[in-house]
Each structure stands twice: as C-alpha cells, then as structure tokens.
Description:
The protein is of the alpha+beta class. The chain is 37% helix and 25% strand. It has a single domain, classed as Peptide Deformylase. A 5-stranded antiparallel beta sheet has the order 1-2-3-4-5, sandwiched between helices. Strand 4 and strand 5 form a beta hairpin. The longest helix is centred in the first third of the chain and has 16 residues. It is globular. The site of zinc ion has 5 residues, from helix 2.
Amino acid sequence: MARNLEFEVVLYPGPILRKVSDPVAHFDEELRATVGAMFARMRKSKGVGLAAPQVGLQQRILVLNPSEDEKNDLVLVNPTIVARAGERVVFDEGCLSFPGIYAEITRPDRCTVRAYDLSGELTEREYAGFTSRIIQHEYDHLEGVLLVDRMTPAEKLKHKSALEELVTRYKRARPAEVAAQAAEREGARKE
Length: 191
Ligand SMILES: [Zn+2]
C-alpha cells in the first residue's frame, strides 16, 4: 500500500526543531515512503539537505544531495558523527527552516559518519567539503541544534531583525497555539 506523503518545512521557531530526535527502529516501507517524501520536499524547496524534524518528524533521518544529480542522493538513518577533522572552514550556510538567512558558520572540513542505509545496513564513511558541511548541518537538527546556535554574536546581531521577523510570523500564524503555550507557562509558574 503506497501512501502519498507530502511534507511542509517547519520554520523557526517551530518547537519540534528544538527536540532531540529518536532512533529509527524499523527499516520498512514506511521509512522508504518518508525518505522519498523528504527528497521530494528538499527538491521542491531547492535545498541540498533535510532532516526529519524539519518536516515534523522526531526521527533520526537525514537526506541530502550536494549536486543536481539524483544518483548522488544520500540517506543517513540513525547517523553518528564518529570523528571531525581537518581545517576549520567558514561557509555561508543557509537552512530551509530559516528562509532568507545565510550566516557564516565555521565547521571542520571533514567528518566520519556511521549510519544505516535504507536497507538497514550499517556503513562508515568519511566525507569532506560541501557534503561534509551538509551532513554536519543536518546532523545538528537531530540534536535540536539550529543555525542560530552556530552563529557568532556578530552574525546573530546581523540577522537579529530577520530572526525576530520569523518569530513574529510564526506567532501570527498560530495564535491559539501561542496562547496555549503562554497559559501553560503561566500555570507552571503558579505550581
Ligand atoms: Zn537546516
């Protein structure tokens, strides 16, 4: 039974983006459908990588492709970055959850990743350059770490109004949710 999954990108400050994601337990049809829909969303949004929490799923799944060629599609399930090495490189990094914001982020050039593929096979590989950059960015999402957390104070200042605008837009789109959260906080204070 094929399900027609369609995902939207969760924008900052969507709360799921702050959650630590759970490992995938089943390498089944549902996982394949999820990954297929994640690639579709990534391409539609003209991204080079996407993490499951960005489509509202608290699962340790990353999809990426540093090129335009679909044969370079890379799926990393339950990934672990076992080593980071090489020169520290500054790169203008964007994120589909932070539309319009690009910030200079410093990361090591190389990373070694242990991850499962779609068939449940565990592999370990070293990546460098742009692919390594994407993996390190997307991996952060699985830990609830975001672009804004990697910014230097100067970068944060530079993007202050754009970040505030995202928060305003988020709240405006969800008045009920924001009111419920405020009520919850109020309740917590009284306890
Ligand atoms: Zn991102």
